[in-house]
Amino acid sequence: MEMAVARQYAINADHPTVTEFWEKFDHLNDTDGVEKLNHSRKDHLIAVSLPEFQERAARHGLRVPEYNDLKRLLPESRGRKFLGYKTVNSILVDSGVDGVDKSVKCWVFRREGMASSKSD
């Protein structure tokens, strides 16, 4: 029975590279309760720009998975379901000169434990 449970856990678990990405993301994103990498305006979503993530990690001296590995493996994320590569109206980018918020291309995921929404 223990082997079956362990096998099922392994099947349901994220790839180690995906797990590493989320650990580094969580570390860099939440400082003093303020999100610094999540561009989403919706509480149930996470929208992350991979180039921004990698640049911020480098500034903090963190080694992160290769960009090509992330592109290949992140769509398989199970803990935080991948919803697509989309343009989002960023909450992190200051308004442009014309007063319109800037859009950012992001990898969009559903937060853990959040139900799906038709507007995802």
Task: Please outline the helices and strands.
Layout: H1 2-12, H2 16-29, E1 30-31, E2 34-35, E3 45-48, H3 50-59, H4 67-73, E4 82-89, E5 103-110
Antiparallel strand pairs: 1-2, 3-5, 4-5
Description:
With 120 residues, the chain is of the alpha+beta class. It has one domain. It contains four helices and five strands, in the order H-H-E-E-E-H-H-E-E.
Q: How many E-type strands?
A: 5
The main sheet orders its strands as 3-5-4
| Distance, first to last CA | 38 Å
The overall pLDDT average reads 84
Helix-strand makeup class: alpha+beta
Beta-strand fraction estimate: 15-25%
Shape: globular
Number of helices in the DSSP assignment: 4
Q: Major beta sheet, specifics?
A: 3 strands, antiparallel
Percent helix, as a range, is 25-40%
Low-confidence stretches: none
Radius of gyration: 16 Å
What pattern of helices and strands is seen along the backbone? HHEEEHHEE
Number of domains: 1
Which features does this protein show?
4 helices, two-stranded antiparallel sheet, alpha+beta, 120 residues, 35% helix
In short:
The chain is an alpha+beta fold. Helix content is 35%, strand content 20%. It has one domain (2-110).
